[in-house]
Every structure is written in C-alpha cells, then in structure tokens.
Amino acid sequence: MSHPLSLAAVALVCLTTLVVGGLGLRLSRRTSDFYVAGRTVSPRLNASAIGGEYLSAASFLGVAGLVYGVGVDMLWVPVGYTLGYLVLLVMVAAPMRRSGAYTLPDFAEARLGSLPVRRVSSILVVAIGWLYLVPQFQGASLTLTLVSGAPSWVGGLVVMVVIAAAVGAGGMRSITFVQAVQYWVKLTALAVPAFVLLALWFRDGHPSPTVPDGWSIPLAPTAPDDHPVYRTTSTVLALSLGTMGLPHVLVRYYTNPDGVGARRTTVTVVALLGTFYLLPPVYAALGRLAFPVLPEGVRSDSVVLRLPGELVGGLGGDVLTAMLAGGAFAAFLSTASGLTMSVTGVLDQEVLRPRLARLTGGDAPGVRGFRFAAVAAVVVPYVVSRASEPLGAATTVGLAFAVAAATFAPLIMLGVWWRRLSTAGALAGLVVGGGATVAALGTTMATDRFTGWPGALLADPGLWAVPLAFATAVVVSLATPGRVPASTTRVLVRLHTPERVRLARSRTHD
Amino acid sequence: MSDLPPPRERVRVTSSRRGASPLRVRAAARDIDEQTALGDVYLEGLMRAQLRLSLAVLALTLVGLAALPVLLLLVPATRSTTVAGLPFAWLVLGVVVYPVAWVLARWYARASERIEADFADVVEDP
After folding, report:
1. CA dihedral sign, ordered A288, A290, A293, A294
2. Per-residue confidence of chain A (510 residues) as pLDDT tens digits?
3. Which residues of chain A have a CB within 8 Å of the CB of B116?
4. Of A118, A114, A122, A117, whose CA–CA distance to A346 is shortest?
5. 3-class SS at A196?
6. Which residue ranges make up each domain of chain B?
7. Which of B40, B69, B97 sits opposite A79 (nearest CB)?
8. Does B106 touch chain A (CB under 8 A)?
C-alpha cells in the first residue's frame, strides 16, 4: 500500500533536518560557536532538547510494540527510561556540568588523567552508539516499507544519508533549539492520533480488548522456566543506570549555565518524559482491540503505525498515519544525529585524525577527517541493521543500555563520589563490566541452548554485571592506592563546589 | 635639685604590629581552593551531605518500585482490582509513577540547592 500523505510527511521531516544541518554549517563556523551558544540556554529549552534527542524509535514505536506483544510487565521499560534521569539527577547531573567535559572520554580523562581509560571509554562510546543506531535504522525501514511499500533497505538508507549529510555538514547537534522542537513534534505526532482514536473508541461504546492469558497480570511467567521478577528487576536496573552512560546524553549537559541549572533541567526532563510515556500504552491497548492476532510476518513495532488505518480508515486515517510516520522519522533522525555526532567525534579524534596527520604530514584539513568519520559512523550500524534479524527496537536499545550501565555508570558514579578510585580500578571496572555484559548478550544471541536460570542470567545480565563492575573497580582501586591520580582532590573540588563560591585555581574557565 | 622627678624607666621600643596579619579569619573558600587539610574537611562535609541526600532519594525510589510487586504478591485481590475502569497495576505503572518521579526529582533539586547555599554561606568571605 502507498500513502502519499505519509510519504510527504517523511520527506518534509528529512528535508527539514537537511536544511537545518546546512544552516548549522553557516551558523557554527568556529568551535566557540559550538560551545558558547550554551550559555544562554534556559533549563526549560534545554530539557526539551534532551527529551527531543532521547525519545528514539524505541520510545516512539518500540514501547507500544512491546506492551502490545508481552503485556503489562513491559510498562516497566518506559518507567526505567524515565528513572534513568532521576538517577542521573541525584548522582551526577550537577558534577557532570561542573566537570566541563563534553564527552564521556573527556570526563574520564579529566577525572583520571589516564590515556588507557580514555581509549577504553572511546571504544565503548563507539560500541554503545552503534548498538543504539541499529534499531533507529530498522525502525526507519519498517516505517517506510509500511507507508510506501518500498523495499526494506530503503528506509534505513534514507536516514543514513540524511544523518551523514547533516552531521558532516555542520553538526546539527549544535542547534539546541532544533532538538527542543523535535520533542514537541514527537509529542504532538503521538498525542493527537491517540486522542482521536480514544474518542472513536468511546463513541463505539468502549469495548474491552481481547487479550491473551497473562497479558494484564504483572510479573506472570510467560513460560515454565521463565523468571519474570529477575528479568524485570535486571531490565529496570540496566535502564535506570544506563541512561547516564549513553554517548548522546552527557553532551547536552554542557549547555546548562551551571550545576544548579543542570539539576533544574533534569527535573523538567523527568516531567517531559513522563508526559510522553503516558501515550504508548494507549496504542498497545487499542492495538489489542484492532489486531487480536498480528498477521504473519508483521512485527509488533508497527502496531502504532497500523492503528489509524485500521480503526479510522479513509482520509482521516491517512492524515493520522502521516502524522505518526512523520513523528517516527523525527524520532529516528533526532536520536540518530545525536548518536552519530558522538560516535563521529570519537572516531575523528581517536582514530582518523592521528592517522591522517601521519599519512599527510599534517597537511589534511581537519574537516575532511571529520566527514570520513561521519560516514563510517553511520555505515557500520546500517550494515549491521541489514545483516541482523530485527529484535524489536526497544529490545535492541536495551542492549545498549545494559552495556552502558555496566561500564560508564560505575565509572561516573565512583568518579564523582569516591576519592580513592585509581586509574587501574577504573580500567578494570570498564573492562570487566563491559566484557561480561557483551559476552552474556552475545551468547544469548548466538545460541538458545541456555534455558531456565542460566538463560535468564545471560539474557538480562544487568543485575549481576553492574555490581560486578562496581566491585571490580572498588577492589582493584583499594589494591592499587599508588595509582590514585594526584589531581583527585582538585577535580572533586571542582565537581562539587557550587559556582557561587569563587575558586581561582580549581575551576576551569570554560 | 633633689625634687627632680625620678628618671623614667627605660622602655624598649620595637616596631609596631602594622605588618602582622589582621585579625580577620580568612575565607574557607581559599582553603578549599588550595586543598589544605582544612579545605579537605569542608569538601568532605559537602560531599557527604549531598551523597546522603542522593542515597535517600534512591532508597525511596527503590522502596516505591518494590512496593508494587510486593503488594500484588501479598494481596492477590489487587491483581484484578480496577480503578476507574483501569487495572490497578496498569494505572500505577503507566500513569502514577511519572508524577511521583517528578515530585521526587523536584524535592531533591531544591534540597541539594539548599545544601549548596548553606555551604557557600559558610565558606565565603563574611
């Protein structure tokens, strides 16, 4: 089937992104433009920008798909996404801003002054970023195939090209305002169809949906050897700790004026995310009404997009579908551009620039390396998205959260609150936490030989891998007191002292 | 001649105390900045107060989250209770958690700003 209106909406969203990327080229010529713009950003605008960047395919399509498919237990997923910002707020928001770091490797280096820690952090940023980008491309493919009948490789390709062009041109992330608008675009695109569908449902005498057994019963095992309590606890822990370690989250904190502003921004983020997450369950429940069983070969992620056509039909249905398709593309593009920017920055700084400088004797202009890096940053996850079986957007994103929770969360939290963290301890925590999580998730994906408890522990490693990473970092740090950086106290003074107190030596002038 | 006043006792004249440091307590902010032992005590106090507040919020969150499964387990009737047409568990997980999380976040932000303001009052120049 083909929906000209939806195609127009998708094209409009893509064009806007490209134009804004092009404008970014004109507006942000110097590095200082990139940084200084942040000084004037109010907490409310900044919070919208964070929300706009954070709400991805997983939130827009994936949550409703999961709740539709599995039931009430999946409501924990958006709760985990939101709690991530509560944990971020109470543990790291203000110190993160005061650190003056722009990326996670920057933070690691500022706190520990260690090149190996910076290297490992960089590898992790790229890995988490790529893992997070894969479902964005898959979501785009699904959406475009649904609204235009195009082959499934087209949607991801469109997003890939638009993002590479926008990021390569000027770094669209520099424009806080655009990301802020994206939040409201997504909220509107999801809310208006939801209210229309709800109104129609009431008019028809609000019939109850037919649901499979256990769909609305919390923490009910879905199989004989399923462990729903473990699975849910582990997922919520990974989501709520993983948020602070996502590559595209820290960067937004730089645009807060000070630590207090960073906290106020985060409070508003919690409110904005909470508002948004009221909507996906509506789609899941109405989806149960419209599709008691999904037709063969239809993924549950597409429930959101299919609903208006099924329940409304005609021109009204087309308009609502177009809104949803446009909103979904806004979600893919805004999240993907933030992630691509982070991955590109790391690839450029750590890999390409040193190599190019050696090859050309320092003659190559810096921007060329940045553009190569932008292309590499999107091509790899696109290839993976084509080669791998789609797992469902929220599930794949969950993997990225799990890795972030077992690596960056211990590093950042111990870095902010614990004086005795040594470089060896930080490094060991990153390697052990990341290695264990990747191994467990990899095993789960490679083989379904493990069932029962081993299967559950491997599929959701958060609950044991995160404490393991913390314990490793602490034990190794205590064993290597000689490797505690000499600058620790100075950095902690900077992270915790309120801006009102004048510090001549400890403060960086950013 | 004899009624001449007795000679004054000789007095040792030393330099005035002009160069001595004034009787003003130096601001603790400098100690913090220069990472003296005293500054360390101040920093330790601030960090401890902030961390205690943060851990309290996390503990509250944890208790709140765990309360739902525990309630559903201990009082099986709540599994099928509906409030305003919505199942109880759906209402809690889909709606109620979000405003509660926001209120908690707001309370935390205010409390930690208060800690910082008190700290700044103590360590800055009087």
Report:
1. negative
2. 557 888 999 899 888 878 776 665 555 555 544 444 445 578 888 899 899 889 988 889 999 999 998 888 899 999 999 999 999 999 999 999 898 887 899 899 999 999 999 999 999 999 999 999 998 998 888 888 888 888 888 889 999 998 888 877 765 445 677 788 889 999 999 999 999 999 998 888 878 877 777 787 777 777 777 888 898 999 999 999 999 999 888 878 877 888 999 999 999 999 999 999 999 999 999 998 888 888 777 888 888 988 988 888 788 888 999 999 999 988 988 898 888 888 988 888 888 777 777 777 666 566 677 788 889 899 999 998 888 877 777 788 889 999 999 999 999 999 999 999 999 999 999 999 999 999 999 888 888 788 888 888 998 999 999 999 999 999 999 999 999 998 899 899 989 999 888 776 666 554
3. 259-260, 498, 500
4. A122
5. helix
6. 54-117
7. B97
8. yes
Measure the N-to-C terminal CA separation of chain A; round to a whole number of Å.
Answer: 54
Cα–Cα distance measured from residue B32 to residue A490, given in angstroms and rounded to the nearest whole number: 9
Nearest CB to B119 within list A217, A264, A498:
A498
Give the CA count within 13 Å in the CB-facing half-sphere of A434. 21
Q: For chain A, which domains are there?
A: 4-393 (1.20.1730.10)
Cβ–Cβ contact B72 with A under 8 A: yes
B102 to A89: CB separation less than 8 angstroms, yes or no: no
Query: Token digits for A75?
Result: 């409501």
| Inter-chain residue contact A270 with B99, CB threshold 8 Å | no
Q: List phi, psi (to 5°) of B83.
A: -120, 120
CB-based contact B105:A86 (threshold 8 Å): yes
Closest CA to A496 of B73, B89, B108, B120: B120
Question: Which chain A residues contact residue B99 at CB under 8 A?
Answer: 274
Q: Which residues contact B64 (CB under 8 A, 6 or more apart)?
A: B100
Query: In degrees rounded to 5, what are phi and psi of residue A503?
Result: -125, 120
Q: Which residues of A touch B45 (CB under 8 A)?
A: none
Site of tokens 């490693």: A461
CA-based end-to-end distance of chain B: 61
As a whole number of angstroms, the distance between CA A503 and CA B35 comes to 11
Q: Which residues of chain B lie closer than 8 angstroms to A497, CB-CB? A: 32, 43, 46, 119
- Residue B111 contacts A, CB cutoff 8 Å: no
State how far the Cα of A240 lies from the Cα of B61, in Å rounded to an integer. Answer: 11
Q: Which residues are paired to B82 by β-bridges?
A: B87
- d(CA A91, nearest CA chain B) in Å: 6
What distance in Å separates residue B123's CA from the closest CA in chain A? 8
User: Is this complex's ipTM strictly greater than 0.85?
Assistant: yes
